[in-house]
Every structure is written in C-alpha cells, then in structure tokens.
C-alpha cells in the first residue's frame, strides 16, 4: 500500500503511480514515486522531496478496502483521521483530520479543502464537502497533504485532499463489483477503460441502495463518470464529466434513553437530502521542452441540494398563557401559574416542524500553470480564478409527530389559530456570488541529492457579494406566535413583508510556506515545514454573524430604546436562518511540522511526525444574549499532536499500524448558549438587560448580566483556554492484519479504536451527570413609582430537570473481517463482516433534551411526546454506530493490466 511512510515503493507500485493523470504524459523517476504537489499537474516531485507526512492510496488499495466512499476509507486506513456520524448516514460523515473537518453539514466549521482532478469540490455556500458526490470507483489515487499548504488555496487550514481520476491509459480493461447483504444493501459498480496509444477513454458507474439499519433511513446513490484523453507527441488533453443524483436519509442523533429502549429508533424523521451534481472539466498539457511544460484547465460545476427535515418544535417550551385550548387548558402544562403541574393539551397542539430548503450552487473556474522540472530545481508558477453563485431558499411549517416519530403536516388536526400550520412561512433567503483570484509559485531546490529546500507562496483576493431577503422586524417571531385571529393584513405583513439587504466584502491574503528534506541515508528522510493559510468566512457564517449595531427596538418608536441589530432580529438555528451581514475577519492559520520516515528493509518502514496549527480569528457559534446564537470571531484555537505509522510483512502476513494523538483546544475565552449543560448559568437575572424603558419597569440584574460583552450569560457556558473541542478523539489507532492463506485465498482483520471525546454543547468540558437545570426567577419591580430601595418581586419558574447523562462519548474499538477467494483469473468472491463483535458504540454526540419522556403530571400523546415540558429529560444525544453487518459479493477485473 502506498501510504505516507513509504520512501521507495516497489517497482510495480511505482509504475502504477506514474501513469498519466489529468492530461499529462507518463513520467518515471527511478526509485521514487512522482507526486503532483498541487491541484494542477505538471510539476512532479518524488515523495522524499515533500517536507510533510504525505499519505496516499491507489485504486487497488481503495478497492481492497471495500469502503463505501472516500471518507469511509480515510477513517479506517489513514493516520490522524477520524469520522463522526452526526447525520446517521454512511455517506454523510464528518471527516476530521488533525482536528480539522470536512463535513456535509451546513454550518460546521470547515478546515480541509478537497479537489477532484483539480476542481475544488467544497461547496460555495458553507465550504461543505458532500462525500457522496465523489465516485470511489473512478479514483486512480488520492493524496492527503497535511498543514496549511498554500498551493491549495482557501480553506486549507489543516490539510488538503487531492483526488485524481482514472483514465483509459491508467486503467485499461473492464471491471465490476456486485455486492449485497445486511439492511437491504445492494451495490453495483462498473468501470472500464481502453486506449490505442493516442486516444483513451474511461467510464465508471455506481448504483447503491439500502433500507438502512435504523427506522425510516433508506438511501440511494447513483454516480457516473466519464473521461476522454488524447496524447500527442508534445501535447495532451482531456475532457471529463461527473454526474451524481443521490437521495440520502440521515436521521441524526438520538436521545440515549430512546436508544436503550430501541437501538433502531430515530428521534424524528424525515431528514432527507437530495444531492445532485453535474461537473464538466477540460484541460491539457503542452511540453515546451523535455524539462518545461504548461498545464491548463477549465471547469463548470453545478450542484443542487433539496432538503426536507422533520424536527421537534423546539419552541414548544416557550408556549405561554395565550397558547390554551377552548377549555382553558394550557398546551404546555409547564406554563400555567407557579405550580407547573398541568397535564398539557394534546389535541390541536403543534409539536413538530417541517423545514424545506433549496440550495443551488454554480461554480466556474480556470487555471494556468507553468512548470520547470530541472535537475536541481523544480519550479512552478500559476494563476487561477474561481467564481461561484449561490441561491438559498427556506420555508417552514408546523406539524405533528406520529408513533414512529415521523413529522407530518396536518393542518386539519391543528388548532386553526396557528397560521404556520396551514401556510408555508418563508425564512431568510439568500443569493450571492464569490470570486477568488490567485497567484501562486513553488520552488524545490535540490543542491545535493540528500537535501531539498522547498518554498511556496500564494496570494488570494476574494470578493463576496451577498443579497439577503429577510422578514421584517415585526415578523421575527416564533412560528407559534403567528396567529390567524389577527387581521390578515397584519399576519401576512409579518410573514411576507420582506427587507432586502446587500453586502459586499473583500478579503486578501498572502500565504507563504518553507520546508526542507534531509536524507542522511538512502533509506531515511528527516523533514520539516512552516506554512500559513487562510479561510474567508463562508456565506453561512457571514449571513448568521452577530451584528452589534444599535437599532430601535421597535421601528418608528425611538422612545422605546435601542438594542443590537441581531437581538432585534432572529437568532440563527443553522442551517435555516440568515440575517444581515456584518463583517467577519478571515481566519488565519500558522502550521508547523517535523518528522522522520525510514525504510528499515525491503519489507518494513515507519514514520513519525509532530505537528501544530494555530488559528487566529477562528469562528464559532456563540451566545450573545436573549437566548440567541450567532457566528462570531472567538480568537485563537490550536491543534497539535503526533502521528506514528509502521507497516511491513512477514512471509504471508501483512501488518500495518497507524496511531495519532490530536490535542484540539480553544485558546481564547468566549460564551456560548448551552442550556442542557449542567454548568450553564440558570439565573434569569443574568440575562441581557438592555434598555429598561423597554421593559417598562426596573429589574435587578445579577453581576453576570454585565459579562459576555454586556449581553449576559443566562443559559450560557463559559469556555476557557485549554478546553478541548468536541467531536475530536485525542487518541486514534488503526490496525490491519492481512493473511495470504494461499495465492487464491486472503483473510484480513481491521481494528479501529478511538478514545473518549466531548459532545457538542460541552465545549467547556465541565458538564456532569449531577444537579438540575433549576432556574432562578427574574426579579422585577412590582410597585408603581419604582423600587429604588426594595419591593422587588420574582417571576415563577418551572421545576428543575435533573442531569443524568455524561457529556462525553466513550471510547470504543470496532473490528471488521474480510475474506476473498479467487474463483478464476480476474474473478473473486468476497465476504465482509463489519462490527464483527456487534459492539454498541457512539461516534459523536451533543447535549440536548428529550421530549418523549415519561410523565407524572403531564399528558403523553400517541407519539410519546410529553405535553408538560417540565418533565422533559436533559439528555445526551448520540450518534450510534451500525450493528454487525454481513455483506457478500463478487468482483471481476478482466483485461486490465496486472
């Protein structure tokens, strides 16, 4: 296998690696595998000239792994990589590398850039990566570059994944795989290539279906890729097309109590994403001489996501005295008087929410690169331009939840007073463009064979133009506050009277890097590098950034005082809500790495590297008062650690071990909303006070009301420097043992072990399974004329709900078994058993609340919903791993090069 610790792979692996890619001619460097060092081909360096722990894999490695997608492969095979399954779908993994994430979830801070044949596949709207849109059987190889490598441009904070496609020259012959097994999984893969020495063609097709191991969780993946290549005497060219149309249902996290009752259950459904991409790319290379060439590329990428998400109606807890039935019974039994013992009203009460989103993204770009491959110098210089346009629309309605926890619309069964049960309520919709222009250079100087010095730099200029259409201030209310009994012109005005805002931002960055390789012996390599990188705030972060600009609390009534613009408008429940766009500075990364790799013998090699990346102006979803959250700059964060790998063979047995330690921490103090964390501030007097004239009476704030920039700390936690980031396991170990029983029979056992990690919502690492969320009621003046010396009264509060679960995801180890038998030349039968010992484990989690809770004083409906929110359970929402799965199949490889 061609992983990062290799210095001089065997000749067969070297020959496969040196096949032409992206329109280049074949280049062979004796004893070293050539590597493209950026998104564009043309400059070819050997691995021991790259001053970083580069990790790579070829198509044979990928095929042998039986992985479903690139993220799945990286999680089980590479150093420093872990995956979180927040979505509950194998094609929607959060892939973490050295504490940085490439995720399909809009709103997740991204820190890895991903390229397919030089085309950046991070989507414009939130820099997300949809792993389901990369067909694995079209991949010739991929390289994982660590650190803030400037050659890969924006968003390369912690690393870059460069994927190269197969061609008719590198993959002649016809191959396929048919597989089926547990959970109704069915997969068909076909691929074929051919060439006549001048013209080559390649295609790859994939069809995947499964019912899913959890309730209401089917998925369908359809992928197609085609490529044509022409090789002339001094020039080459290619054209490719990529299409994918997928329907993914990921029903996300589940309360730990519900999981223990029924591991197959879902919290709410549906949570469906329909992803589609159509990408065209053309490129080529012209050889100016034996040592110099020009490479160029044009691309057009059109992607679309349609989402339907069924969720609990989280604002049910805010139902007040106006939310009552015809008989005067409160819809939420915890909102009446001071006793909070009412049952709550089941009939006609909306408890679910359906959100529909429509996201269209179109990107075009061009690159031009000059390359000189000289005996002592490898130099490149390039220019690129990338332009994207994004449109986003969102609509919401109130609904009900059935016994299987499916959210559905039923306006005839909901009290007609609720406007949002019968009408689509538009959200804050968006349209914007982003243009990035870049210049970049790299020079690798090798004055003597044993030493190389590499310097690189990239200049980026990004211009972002956004246009947002938002509901007016009067319409920024919760869905249940939109009432039919009001005059239609008033209610419709709240919903449809929109404010259009336009914003434009420009970002510039100059990102250099410097690295060195020293080879004291032919079999060893000492390397080190320093680099800087940058990420401009994504559209989501800009659109949901906190704006402290003072504005009137009520337009046209200045006597009622002012408040920050964002606190007058809505909070941001990602990914559904956007607001006007205040400026956020770009994130700057500074990375360093030192390491050693060595080939001990013809069969054994190892590597060790130490790394650190510090971010300035990092962005996080923070609390700013009034129970609201926005993206804002939080200061500094840090990722540091080490990676160690060793692999080799002993006769018929192959062994590989990859270990990584990742310490990902916050380095600046900030506050964030986390009402289900036991260490949160539950004193209502710690809330944002604002202008007392608006409140209409004096209040008695606690000292904490002055903290958090004066926006208070009610229901918030304080995150201090040194707190570990959620979702990142400190220790990760991947082991692999392969046994060639006979030339035709192979067995393999893989282990993935991960240590404990913290849940989202426990960013301060202080949550405990102890105490309750008992609140302290707000003190207010109950006397006419003021309460200068006394007379304050206190608002009633609900009873506290206990904390009974941990804010940590336990460590785990999972084993996978595989076996294959060669039936005849080029035809193999295989079996794969995942989670061999049927281990119950969780890959991720967050703190939350479970409304499907048992009741003493409340009413429980057919769905299990408790209509008295004071009896809801503070809980840990977990991402359960799949149980044991057994899959069998047959694979054929006919006419291909051995």
UniProtKB/TrEMBL annotation:
Residues 244-836 form the TonB-dependent receptor-like beta-barrel domain. One of its GO terms (cellular component) is cell outer membrane. The lineage of its organism: Bacteria, Pseudomonadati, Pseudomonadota, Betaproteobacteria, Burkholderiales. Belongs to the TonB-dependent receptor family. GO terms for molecular function: siderophore uptake transmembrane transporter activity. It is a multi-pass membrane protein. SUPFAM superfamilies: Porins. The keyword ATP-binding does not apply. One of its GO terms (biological process) is siderophore transmembrane transport. InterPro entries: Beta-barrel_TonB, Beta-barrel_TonB_sf, Plug_dom, Plug_dom_sf, TonB-dep_rcpt-like. It comes from Rubrivivax gelatinosus (strain NBRC 100245 / IL144). This is Putative TonB-dependent receptor. PROSITE patterns: TONB_DEPENDENT_REC_3. Residues 1-24, 324-347 are annotated as: Disordered. Residues 48-160 form the TonB-dependent receptor plug domain. The keyword Transport applies. It is found in: Cell outer membrane. Keywords: Cell outer membrane, Membrane, Receptor, TonB box, Transmembrane, Transmembrane beta strand, Transport. Residues 1-22 have a biased composition (Low complexity).
